[in-house]
Amino acid sequence: MTCKIAPSILSFSQAAIAEPTRRLMAAGADWIHFDVMDGQFVPPITFGAALVASLRTLGNTPFEAHLMTLTPERHFEAFAKAGCRRITFHAEATHHAYRLAQSLHAMGLEAGLAINPATAVGAILPCLDTIDLALVMTVNPGWGGQKFIASTLAKVRKLREVAPDLEIEVDGGIDPDTLPIARAAGANVFVAGHYLASQDDPAQGLACLRKLCA
Ligand code: DX5
Ligand code: ZN
């Protein structure tokens, strides 16, 4: 599976979000990852579809909304209209992950299904024939800059074993030390927020992660 790097903008200041986002798009990011939090599914509140829409004109890089929200289906239309190509919602936030994934396809979007560190990989398996991507959280959702939880990689290994062609994304604590470990477990899409935001030049950080994917 080809490696994709999906910078998260969560760790950049929202007062000056356009420039780092533009630079990462120009530097070849495969996706831009938007961490949408509602203060219910996770304690923080981050931003809505309006911020995503405001960045859409910066380039053509595909946008992914990672909905850390209750009732994610209430937000599908707004993030589709804002220009997202994929919406990833949490299995813990719905009783109807299969139907929600189907509804995203009916809207012409890709469907991603995410699981928290405490959620078994079995929550994803029944949906494998209707999702485009599985997101295995490698930190507790809600904050950037947390420590990578290596035990979550057992779920990545299991997913890669049963679904060799699935896009498997890891999200949280990804940096030059942890990316190779996650890749070896079978992940191929890497979300990085704090690591990139902590570089003098995020584009250099992106290039460093890209080299580790080769
Ligand atoms: C956490 C988010 C992550 C985060 C990126 O709830 O889903 O995408 O912003 O994590 P770090 O900053 O660890 O790369
Ligand atoms: Zn995320």
UniProtKB/TrEMBL annotation:
One protein family per Pfam: Ribul_P_3_epim
What Enzyme Commission number(s) appear in the record? 5.1.3.1
Q: What does the cofactor field's note say?
A: Binds 1 divalent metal cation per subunit.
This protein's GO cellular component annotations are: cytoplasm
The molecular function terms in GO held by this entry are: D-ribulose-phosphate 3-epimerase activity; metal ion binding
Q: List the keywords (alphabetical).
A: Carbohydrate metabolism, Cobalt, Isomerase, Manganese, Metal-binding, Zinc
Q: Which InterPro entries does this entry report, sorted A to Z?
A: Aldolase_TIM, Ribul_P_3_epim, Ribul_P_3_epim-like, RibuloseP-bd_barrel
Which residues are listed for a divalent metal cation binding in this entry?
33, 35, 66, 171
- Give a yes or no for keyword Manganese in this entry: yes
Q: Quote the pathway field.
A: Carbohydrate degradation
Annotated substrate binding lies at 8, 66, 142-145, 171-173
Cofactor dependence is on:
Co(2+); a divalent metal cation; Mn(2+); Fe(2+)
User: What is any one GO biological process for this UniProt entry?
Assistant: pentose-phosphate shunt
Which reaction(s) does its UniProt entry say it catalyses? D-ribulose 5-phosphate = D-xylulose 5-phosphate
Please state what class of enzyme this protein is. isomerase
Q: Where is the active site?
A: 35 (proton acceptor), 171 (proton donor)
Q: Which family does it belong to?
A: Belongs to the ribulose-phosphate 3-epimerase family.
Question: What is the role of this chain?
Answer: Catalyzes the reversible epimerization of D-ribulose 5-phosphate to D-xylulose 5-phosphate.
Q: What is this protein called?
A: Ribulose-phosphate 3-epimerase
